[in-house]
Amino acid sequence: MREFWVSSGHHMTRRRADGGLEVSDELLLAYLARPELKPPPEACAAERALHASLIAEPRREVDAAEVAVIADADARENWEFMLGFRGRLARAASIEAAYLDIARNGAAGVPPLFMNHLAHLILRNALDGCEDPYVLRAGELFFRAQRASVHDGALLLADAERIEEAEADRHAAPLAAMFSGPAAGDLDVMTDETAWTYWSRSDAFTMALNLGGNARSREGLARAIEAWIRHMLGVETLVKPERGMHDEDWRWFVGLDAEASRIGNAIWRGGKARPGDQERILAVFSLAFADESGVLPVAKGRPVWLLLAETPDHVVRLKPQNLLTGLPLVGAVRPS
């Protein structure tokens, strides 16, 4: 079995009998070691003492007074966020249960960076044993923002952070021109001929995805979506890439990102979309349930439409939590 996404930290936890991942001390220590929490040389004694004590005992109770006496206001806020997040992890039966709790009950106080990491770690678990590089590359959308660009009529998605790094580099190479900036020489488009190289670079995030011109890329994203729903909700689905929403009786949709949710809601409620909204819809999928016994009556026998969109500045920020709270399942909460 091939290794991938080592940067998810999956080696710092263990799989439970139910398939979920344990909230291990090693994982908590990894969060504590992040540069945002590591006290700088000028940090006060209270902050240094708090950090050192948690490195020694990552689950110990922390009194609010220990945070209140930290001199730097930004550091206090960071610690409040971290301790709240740690509490939600520690109280959960698994990493997956913690993510589901946050998705359903609100992510207030949880930095987006931590939500992305949890999605990275969980999807790594859900895709364990996957042998299709297209599924894995498409799965990166679940935890890393993408920059969208059209080149030779094909929609390409490249890692936004890598493009920003390339744009900061004065040395140009061919691909970055597609994304309106200088290029990174180690960034190229996944094709059937180059897909095998993904295994040696899965943590570099340096392959662009031809979402518009390569059917395997869209199928890869569909398979990643199915795996996420199966792993998190125990629900079997069939997700199919579509050319558009060819359905006059549109019963239910899920926006895979905030922009798609906004555009979809405008159409859903009979409102007018803003100029350019239709062009920002990058992909449409239909979703069907293998077993409809838990599906809300309004959606039974009808496809659920999944929409993926880019922001006006051509960034795609997929929100995998929407697939957990937005499907027409009994007890589900529709995302705003």
Structure keywords:
alpha+beta, 5-stranded mixed sheet, 3 domains, 37% helix, 4-stranded mixed sheet, 9 strands
The major sheet is characterized as: 5 strands, mixed
Beta-strand percent range: 5-15%
Strand order of the largest sheet: 3-4-2-1-9
Mean residue pLDDT: 89
Terminal Cα span: 40 Å
Label the structural class: alpha+beta
The shape, in one word, is globular
Total separate domains? 3
Description:
This protein has 336 residues and is of the alpha+beta class. It folds into three domains: 121 residues, no CATH class; 83 residues, no CATH class; 104 residues, no CATH class. It has twelve helices and nine strands. The strands form two sheets. It has a five-stranded mixed beta sheet with strand order 3-4-2-1-9. The chain has a four-stranded mixed beta sheet with strand order 5-7-8-6, with helices on both faces. The longest helix is centred in the N-terminal third of the chain and has 19 residues. It is globular and about 65 Å long. 38% of the residues are buried. About 2% of the residues have low confidence.
